Amino acid sequence: MTRQALHRLIEDLPEEELTPAARYLEFLACRDNLDAWNDPSYQEYALSQVRAAEDEIAQGKSISLEDAKTQFPTCFGE
Q: Domain extents for the chain?
């Protein structure tokens, strides 16, 4: 993966995914700094995303891994 390819991926993200992507990139940039991971606002955000995903799974809104690979091939290196 090159920086240019990463920039293209970011440019293709839907607007509502920019904040989660930014948070994850910030985490990666300072992963040696546990303060970022332990920040209460990040923990609250991450927990809310896990709960939202669990709700979607319970409502049958999930897709199979094979469907995900078809819909998002770049995420799986294809």
A: 1-32, 39-78
